[in-house]
């Protein structure tokens, strides 16, 4: 089988799995700590806001550095620094929530170099025709790592006031990621792991989409990212409102992992059949419907809660009808989020020159974070005043509107009525 024979790709997948497990472990550990005494929805939103503020501060420069350095050196150094930061926080004993938030910020800041590189390195380790499949496998490895960190390691190693075991495990996993990519030397024919000529760097400091199709996909991705961040931030309070302890949030939202896995297996075929734009818009529409489903899960429970197979699963929280419905909804959420993200990544791999791809993904990361911060903090404040369910329902408006607009634009384009001349006239 192609992925198993390609040891270059296997090393990338292993490094991605370990790194994302560490990041998930740290992020969810900080979120769980925020649900202890004096907990609030805003504090949970603040944790997520801190984690996504790194692209705003360092995203563009991170992509620039990622393209300037050899890919292997960029990945090895970034993973190693993330592990060192985890050990440094441990040096003072049991860290406070403030130190956990600082650690999450530093890890995500360094991730602005490793994240774009993980995507930009794929054309160097697999043939061009295999890039969509390799991209899906990379995302699947990251999703599996996030699931391992949140659903297995975090409940075992972390609880409010006891996070030393989790930080130690995170440092070890970052070290494994660094070793995996450091030992990788070989590339597909035609590529060489070397920095690009210095004379090319100043005029190519950043990449920005110039065509209408790419701009539409960027808008879809930014909206999807904001919706996912809101769900992550409000997740602990949502399950508490449903009568479940916050540390079991990962089991309630575990359905998203099923949706992600299905999407990653089918996304290459869907994107090839229907195109990047249609696939991304469909994914965003599913995210909007999922937000509505979470908001109205209590009302849907009498209709759906008693007919789900989740009653047979002996996991915490599945005895609550509302939470069983929420788990089913998150399957759709995971599928839609993965499909939208993968469609945009495939589009970037296809239309952007390889030497600029790390910067392109860094720009996407920066735009996503910039668009996400304000809605995320407003959702945290709104949840305190109006309730978590209400805010989740209201948050569905933006994804649904962007999806409808994207559908209309795509339909016009398919009919040969391009919207780009109108953009040029407006710009002029």
Helices and strands in order:
Layout: H1 2-5, H2 7-33, H3 41-68, H4 71-90, H5 97-120, H6 122-125, H7 131-157, H8 164-182, H9 212-241, H10 249-252, H11 255-274, H12 276-295, H13 297-304, H14 321-351, H15 357-386, H16 388-395, H17 397-414, H18 420-427
Helix pairs in contact: 2-3, 2-5, 2-7, 2-8, 3-5, 3-9, 3-15, 4-5, 4-8, 5-15, 7-8, 7-11, 7-14, 9-12, 9-14, 9-15, 9-16, 9-17, 11-12, 11-14, 12-14, 12-16, 12-17, 13-14, 15-16
Short summary:
Helices cover 77% and strands 0% of the residues.
Overall outline: globular
State the end-to-end CA separation. Answer: 53 Å
Derived structural class? mainly alpha
The CATH homologous superfamily: MFS general substrate transporter like domains
The level of helicity is over 70%
CATH topology group = Growth Hormone, Chain: A
Question: What is the C-alpha radius of gyration, as a whole number of Å?
Answer: 21 Å
Main β-sheet description: none
Low-confidence stretches: 188-205, 417-428
Tell me the domain tally: 1
- Please report which band the strand proportion falls in: under 5%, 5-15%, 15-25%, 25-35%, 35-45% or over 45%: under 5%
DSSP summary: helix tally: 18
Name of the CATH class: Mainly Alpha
**What is the quaternary state of this protein?**
single chain
- Count every beta strand, where a strand is a DSSP E run of 2 or more residues: 0
CATH architecture: Up-down Bundle
What is the chain-wise order of helices and strands? HHHHHHHHHHHHHHHHHH
Mean pLDDT: 77
